[in-house]
Amino acid sequence: MTIGELYRKYLQELKAFLPSGEADQITNMVFEHVIGLSRSDLIKNPDAALDAFKKEELLHKLSLLLCKAPVQYVLGECNFYQLTFEVNQSVLIPRPETEELVERAIHFCRQNNKTTVLDIGTGSGCIPISIQKNTTNCAITTMDISSDAIALAKKNALKHQAEIHFLQEDFLNENFWKHLPSFDLIVSNPPYIPSSEKATMDDNVVLYEP
Q: How many CB atoms are located within 10 Å of the residue 175 CB?
C-alpha cells in the first residue's frame, strides 16, 4: 500500500461520520505526526512506498479514530498557546478558549511585579506552564486531585523547563485551605459541564475525556 492509498483510505473512512473539513484536518495531522509529511508533500509523491511499521502505526491510529477517540489522545499531544503538551485520558484536552484565560493571567502578571499564582485543577499543566513561560518574577503553584494528572503535568513542566510548584490535593476540602498561603491571582478552568448535559455532547468527549 502506497502513502497515497492509505491517505485516501483515511479520508474515505473518516468522512463517513465527520464533516469533510474535519476529516481532512485530522488526516493531515496524523500523517504529519507519524511520517513527517505535510499534505503538500503527499500530493507531490503519492506513490511512495510506506514503511511496514509506519503503515501498522497509521492503521492502528485509524482504528482508534473510527472508535471516535479524539485525535489529541490518538497522537498523545495537543498544541496550546504556542507550546505542545503531552495529553492522555487522565486529563482534559486543552481548548482554544482556555488560551483567553491564559492571556488575561499573563497580562495581570506582567502588570504586577513578583506575582504569586494558584492554578486549581491543572490537568495537563497547560495553564500554569504557559503563564510561567510568558512571564518573569511569577511564582506559580498548581494543584489537582488526580495523581495521574499531576504526574503528566510534571512531565510537561520538565519538557518545557517551567518552574512550577505542584500539589496533589482536593481543593473542595475546606480543611486544606488553611494550609495555603495567600495568592495574588487564582486561575482555574475545571470540567464544569453538568452530567445532565451528557446526552447533548459528542461521543468523543463523553466516551474518552475524564
A: 7
Helical (H) or strand (E) element with 157: helix 147-159
Residue 114 Ramachandran class (φ > 0 left, ψ -120 to 50 alpha, else beta) = left
Mean pLDDT in runs of 10 for the chain (210 residues)?
86 90 92 84 75 91 92 95 95 92 95 92 96 94 96 97 95 90 93 71 63
Phi, psi of 165 (to 5 degrees): -95, 120
Q: Are 18 and 27 in contact (CB under 8 A)?
A: no
Q: State how far Cα 138 lies from the chain centre.
A: 23
Buried (b) or exposed (e) across 4-17, using 16+ Cβ within 10 A? eebbeebbebbeee
Residue 204 has what pLDDT? 60
Q: Round to whole Å and give the CA distance between 39 and 23.
A: 13
- Do residues 168 and 148 touch, judged by C-beta distance below 8 A? no
Distance CA 188, CA 145 (A): 13
Q: Is 72 left (phi over 0), alpha (psi -120 to 50) or beta?
A: alpha
* Type of residue found at 160: H
Residue 95 — φ and ψ, nearest 5°? -100, 150
d(CA 163, CA 60): 36
**71 contacts 30 by C-beta, under 8 angstroms:** yes
> What local confidence, expressed as pLDDT, does residue 205 receive?
65
Query: What was the pLDDT predicted at 208?
Result: 56
